[in-house]
Amino acid sequence: MMVTKSHARMRLNDTLSLTYGALRGAPTRTGLMLLAMAIGVAAVVVLTSLGEGARRYISDEFTSLGTNLLIVLPGRSETSGDMATLLMSDTTRDLTLDDARALMRSRYIRRLSPINVGSSQLSWRERSRDISVFGATHDLLAIHHWKMAQGRFLPLVEMDRATPVCVIGARLSSELFGNRPPVGEWVRLGERRFRVIGVLATKGRTVGIDVEEIVVIPVASAQALFNEASLFRIIIEARDRDAIRHASAFIKTTLRKRHQGEEDITLITQDAVLATFDKIFQSLTFTVAGIAAISLAVAGILVMNVMLVSVSQRTAEIGLLKALGASQRQIVTLFLWEAAMLSFAGACIGLLIGLGGSWLIGYLFPAITMGAPLWAVVAAVGVALLTGLLFGVMPARRAARLNPVLALVHHR
Amino acid sequence: MLIKDLIKLTSCAVIAQRMRSFLTSLGIAIGVAAVVLLTSIGDGMQRFVMAEFTQFGTNLIAINPGKTTTHGASIGIYGTERPLTIDDAAALEKLRDVEAVVPLVQGNAEVESTHRQRRTTVYGISGDMPHAYRVEVALGRYFINEDPSTPRAVAVLGSKLRSELFGSRNPLEQRIRIGGERYRIIGVFAPKGQILGVDLDDAVYIPAARAQEMFNRDSLVEIDLLYRETADVDEVVASIARLLSARHGRDDVTITTQQQMLDVLGSVLAILTFAVAALGSISLLVGSVGIFTIMTIAVNERTSEIGLLRALGGKRQQVMAIFLGEAIILATLGGLLGLVIGVGGAQLLTLLFPALPVHISWNYLIAAETLAIVIGVIAGVWPARRAAKLNPVDALRSE
Amino acid sequence: MIQLQQIHRIFKVGDQQVHALNDLSLTINGGEYLSIMGPSGSGKSTLLNLIGLLDQPTSGEYTFNNQKVTTLSDDQKAVLRRDQIGFIFQFFHLVPRLTAIENIELPMVLAGIPSTERRTRVSRILDAVGLAERAHHKPEQLSGGQQQRVAIARATIMQPSVLLADEPTGNLDSASGNDVVEILEALNQQGITLIIVTHDAALGARAMREIKMIDGRIIDDGHQKPR
Question: Which positions in chain B touch C75 (Cβ < 8 Å)?
C-alpha cells in the first residue's frame, strides 16, 4: 500500500512548477482569466465594504447621540422602533414636564432631559437666520456627550424655570457674530430676547440634526416661545446597559399611572433602533455581495471554458505524460492545481484591487468608514477558489480520460 | 461579402465549437439574466410605490408649517411660532382654482363602542376630504362643511375600524366614545387600503376643530389642497404662498406639490433600479472578459485560416467582420438566453412570492439585450483587429 | 504578364538581416508553365508569396498585367488576389468546419457573388475535378488527394489568370500526386499561367520552364524548352 501511494503522488513543488509553466505558456489567456476572477472578487470586496461602511456610519451616528439611551415619545405606536414614530407626532395625552420630573425618581435612570423642538428666526442686530430651536435642560450636554467651545451650557435649575438664556451652535455663532465673542450678547428668538451663555464645540451631526446650526434654550422657555405645553420627547440615559430594561419598565408603569392607566407613550431604546438598522444594513450588504458574487460564477465558467480549450490544445502533452506513466489521477490533479492557482491568484489580485478601491472611496468620502468585513473577504476568496475548482473538474476529467495513443497521434 | 454569407460563416464557426460557444454565451446570459431579474424587481417596486402615491390623485398640494431649513428636512411640524389654523384653511378655499381644502389634525385615541374598544388613529379633517383624497362613502353620509367654530360631534369610520367595532352590524347612528368624548356615527368609508404603511381604513374621521379640542392644540399638522386639473400649478402655489405670507406676516410654510413629490420619488427609485442594474452588470463585465478571452484564443487557433482568407482575396475588414461577427453572435445568443432565464426567473418569483411586486419592463429587456450586443462588439473588436492585422504570409505558415 | 525588376526582399531576424531575394528580375508571360526549384532557404517561397501579392518587396518594381502593383493598397491587392490569382498549398488549407462545396465557394463569398450563381459555378467545377459525389463532405472525411482537388477547385473558381502552387504534391502519395499534377497541367493547357514551387526534381522537370534558385538569386532560368 505504501508503494502504490508513493507512486501515485507527485511532489508538490513539481506539480506546482508544471502548473506554473503551463500558465506561463499562455500569458494572455492566463491574464484574462485572472482579470475575470479579480473583477468578481474586487466587486464583492468593494460592495461589502460600502455596505459595512454605511452600517458603521449609521451606528456611529446613533452612538454619538449618547449611550444607553431611551427615548419617550408621546402617542402609542404598535410598531415601536420604526422610523415613522420617530418623525411623526401624534398625541393623545400630552407628555409634560411633570412626567419628566416623575421619571427622575428611578435609580436606574442617571439623567434625563425633556425636549421641545421648533423652528424660529434667530436675530442679532440686522442679521437673522431661520434655525432649529431645542428646548432642553442642563443634562442634555452630558447625555449627548457634547462639548462647549465657549461659555457654559444651560444652568442646572428646575425644569420649569424659563430663564432667557441660550447656547448656540458653532457655525451659527460665526455666521451671526463673526469673530466677536458671542457670550454675553443678547439675541432675539421670535419676539423674545435671550442672552448667549455658551457656544457648542461639537462638530458634525447627531442623527440628522446639524449640531452646528441649532440654538438650545431651557425647555420651559421653549414651551413659552412655541406656546406648546406638550413635550416633543424625553431623552433618558440609563445608569448602565443592564439598567435599560429596568428603566424602561419603570418608565412604562410610572407614565401609565400618571396618564390615568393608559399606556399612551412610545418607548424607543437605542439598542432596538440600532438592531433594526444593523439588520437592514446587514441584509443589504448580503444581497449586494450576493449579486456581485454572481460575477464569480461567470468567472468560474470562463475558467472552465478556457481549461477545456487548454485540454484540447495540450492533447499531445497529455498523451506524452500518459505515455511516460502518469496516472489519470495525476492528470486530474495537475489540471485542478492549474484551476486552483488561477482562481487563487485572481482572487488575490481582486482582493488587492478591492481593498485599494475601498481605501480610495474612504479617502474621497471620509464620512464613510470603509472596511470590508472579514467574512466578505474570506467568502469572496473562498467562493473564487471553489468555483475555480468546481469548474475545473470537468476539463480535468476530460484530460485524464484522453486515450494516450490518440492523444499522441493528434499531434501532427 | 453578402450579409447572409457573413452570418453563415460566423455562425458556422460558433456551432463548430459548441461547448466553448455555449459556455461563453452562458457567461453573458447569467449577467443579462441578473440585470433583467434585478430591474424587474426594481421596476415592480417603483410601480408599486408610485401607484400607492397616485391613489390620492396628482393635483394635490400639501402645506406644512415651518420653512424647510438649510439642512433639508422640515422640523417645523413640531410647533412653530405661527401655526397653521383652520382659519388659514378657510381662507385658502377662496383662492382661484382651488377645489377642495382639507385641514388635517392627527392623533391616537381609544375608540369605544358599546361592546368593543380599539386604539386607533384619529384624523380631524373637513368636509372636502372624500373629494380631495378620492375616497368613497360606502354607508351613510359624510359631514358636509359646517361651521368650523361649532362643529358637531359626528364621526365617519374607516372600513376596518367599522368591522372591528361593529362586525357586520349597522353602525349608523350608533354612539361611540373617542378619547372619552361621545360621537355619533354618520357614515363609513369604502376600503382604501394601506398607503405606504399608513392604514386609512383603521381610523376614525371627525371634524378638525373637534380633533383640536381633543388633542388640546390650536394648530393643524397640515393643510391639503386640491386644485383644478386645468390650473397652472406654479400659479396655485404662488397664490397660496402670497395668501399665507399676508396672513402670517412672513413666509413660514412649506408647500409641496404632489407632482414634486412624485418626481423626486420617481427619480430616487429610478436611480435605485439603475444602481441595481449596474450591480448586475458586473457579471456582464466578467462575461465580456470571457468573450474577449475566447475570441483571442480563436484568433490564435485559426491563424492559418486567417492567412488563407487573405490569400483567397479577403480584405482586412472582411476578416475583421468575420471575427467581430462571431463575438457579436456569442453575445447576442447569450443575451437572448439571459432574457429567457431572467424573464423565467421573474415569472417564478411572482409565482412563489405573489406579494413581491415584479414588473418586467420591455425597456429594460431591450436595454439588456442591446448592452449584451454592445459588449460583444467591445470584447470582439480587439481580437478581430488583431486577426485583421496579421501578416498573411506568417499566418499561412503557422500551423 | 508578370514582370519583376531588381527585386530585393530583406527580412529582419533579430539583429540580423536575411536577404531572401537579392536583386531578382524575372518575366513570366501569360500561359507559361513554370517550376521554381532550389534548396530550402533559397527564397523560392518568398518569391511565390511576392508574385501572389501576399508579400511586399523591400525594393524593386513588380508589374502584374501591365499594372504596377507595388504601390497598390492592401485592399486593392486583396481584390487582385481574389480575381486573378489562385493559391494551392502543400497542406491544402481547407477550413475544417466547412464542406467541400463551402470551401470552394469561399472566394465567391468574399467577392459577394449571389448564391444561385455560385451553385452553378461550383457544380461545374466539381465535375471537372471529379468530386461531384463528395460535395457535402467535410475535409476530414476526404483523402489527401481529394482535399487537394477541392483546393484546386477553390483556387480556380474565380477563373484566375495565374495559379500558384507551393509543393502541391508534397503531402500526397505518388498516385494522387500525379492526379493533382495532371489536373493542374490541364488547367495550364486551357491558358492559365501555372507556377509550381517544389523540391521534387521530377515534378520540376515537367514544367516548360525550370528556374533554379540559390540564396535569393536565380542561378538558372532554363528558358522555354520544347515539350
Answer: 315-317
Give B-chain residues touching C74 at CB under 8 angstroms.
Answer: 315-316
List pLDDT tens digits, range C182-216: 999 999 999 999 999 998 889 999 999 999 999 88
- In single-letter form, the type of residue at position B54 comes to T
Residues forming a β-bridge with C13: C16
DSSP code string of A280-327: HHHHHHHHHHHHHHHHHHHHHHHHHHHHHHHHHHTHHHHHHHHHTT--
CB < 8 Å to B5, chain C: 109, 112, 115
Same domain, B104 and B220: yes
For residue B27, give every residue at least 6 positions away whose Cβ sits within 8 Å of its Cβ, in sequence order, or none. Answer: A298, A301, A302, A305, B283, B286, B287, B290, B291, B334
- Say if the Cβ atoms of C110 and B318 lie within 8 Å: yes
Mutate to test the interface with A, among B118, B253, B283 (most CBs of A within 10 A): B283
**Closest-CA residue of chain B to A300:** B27
Q: How many CB atoms lie under 10 A from the CB of residue A15?
A: 18
Q: Which residues from B are below 8 Å from C when comparing CB atoms?
A: 1-2, 4-5, 9, 12-13, 15-16, 304-305, 307-318, 392-393, 396, 399
The CA distance from C134 to B210, in Å, is: 99
Distance to chain C for B314, nearest Cα, Å? 6
Chain B: give the shortest CA distance to residue A119, in Å. 5
Q: What are phi and psi of C23, to 5 degrees?
A: 50, 55
| Containing structural domain, residue B156 | 100-228
pLDDT digits (tens, 9 = 90+) for C109-130: 888 889 899 999 999 999 888 8
> In this structure, how many other beta carbons lie within 10 angstroms of the beta carbon of residue B120?
21
The count of CB pairs under 8 A between chains A and B is 159
CATH number of the domain at C184, please: 3.40.50.300
Q: What is the ipTM of this complex?
A: 0.87
At A38, which amino acid appears? A
Same-domain pairing of B219 and B271 = no
Nearest to A300 by CA among B390, C121, B83, B287: B287
Asked if the structure places residue A70 within a domain, the reply is: no
Interchain proximity C98–B312, CB inside 8 Å = no
The verdict on residue B118 lying in a domain is yes
Per-residue pLDDT tens over the stretch C143-165:
999 999 999 999 999 999 999 99
For residues A251 and A259, give the distance between their C-alpha atoms in angstroms, rounded to a whole number: 12
Gap between the Cα atoms of A6 and A28, Å rounded = 36
Q: Are A62 and A274 in contact (CB under 8 A)?
A: yes
Burial class from Cβ neighbours inside 10 Å (0-12, 13-18, 19+) for residue A217 reads buried
Q: Is the pLDDT of residue A15 over 70?
A: yes
- Whether B382 is in a domain gets the answer yes
Asked whether residue C68 is assigned to any structural domain, the reply reads no
Looking from the CA of B46 toward its CB, the CA atoms found within 13 Å total 23
Nearest CA to B223 out of B141, B106, B97 is that of B106
Residues 6+ apart with CB under 8 A from B6: B321, B322, B325
| Side-chain-facing half-sphere of B91: CA atoms under 13 Å | 15
